[in-house]
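We emphasize that the prediction below concerns an isolated chain of 349 residues; any contacts that depend on oligomerization or on bound cofactors are therefore not represented. The input was used exactly as deposited, without trimming of termini.
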Amino acid sequence: MIILKPDTTEDQVQLVVARVRELGLTPHVSRGKERIVIGVVGEARRVEPGVFRHLPGVDDVVPISRPYKLTSREFHPENTLVRVGPVTFGGTDIVIIAGPCSVESRSQLLETAHAVKEAGAQMLRGGAFKPRTSPYSFQGLGEKGLEYLAEAREVTGLPVVTEVMAPEQVPLVARYADMLQIGARNMQNYPLLKAAGRMGKPILLKRGMGATVTEWLLAAEYILSEGNWQVVMCERGIRTFETSTRNTTDINAIPVLKRATHLPVILDPSHSTGHWEYVTPIARAAIAAGADGLIVEVHPRPEEALSDGGQSLKPERFAQMVREVRAIAQIVREVQAALVPAGGGPNGR
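Result of the prediction step, given as a token string:
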């Protein structure tokens, strides 16, 4: 990590960038409020820090101790804001994404899209390609489902996020979606991560069901290393010995990530519990723990859903959840505003 002096000129920045590239390394420039930092990615261990220290404008060269570099707060201390159309993740307001697990039909999607918008959702989710445990389960409508999502965006104004499952699907899905989702089963599909990163669209990266936080951040590192910093981390529960819920919600991951990375963090209370009765309580807990938003499954008739009906909220229950989590978010903001001036900053105890 090359830290530049506050008065460094743009010519000096480009001189450092050029020197990094000459050494066969990849520079990533981060422009903060006070300083510019250049992250150096590659086999940097074979390069002596002194190679950069003598360059004009360089203040210091500091090794990043974490195995993940670009995603680390050591490299980028300020929160990254991820923008999807008019929606911003990582700002002062929480973002709520909602919609059906699968796009089943045009009428089902449009009905759900109108309902979640009326309830307060800012984005629409829906699976056009569905990775399922069983090959005999509903696999999604494919491109027709993407067309329905695009139509729903047109009539409601809600940006769309949908899952992409393979590198060759990335251009197709990116043509229709405002944000690409990489699901839990594909978190370590490295060719997919690279292809999605190169596309430049915002990415929603779900945690693998057996992945550690470090492995998850290293998956995000693949995307950032392709030049795409528009990544939102999504906790969706991990697999443990417990069988009373579909997965075990790792609430711990929210404050851990908020401390470790500058990327926004949201939670999926639908997949992390697997039961609609638990979705709202876990959603409340996520916002209280500091999550930047939620992604929730909503279906007008869950008993008829072709996938994950048991964890889907009906529109009226979703509307109540939105009211509750926004109330909690407001309380959290008020508490933080009251404590910080009194010395209760993020590094306090």
